[in-house]
Amino acid sequence: MEEAYHTMTYGNIPLKLDTGNGMVFPKGIEILARVNQETGEVTFFIDRKNLEQLK
Question: Record's superkingdom (predicted)?
Answer without folding.
Answer: Bacteria
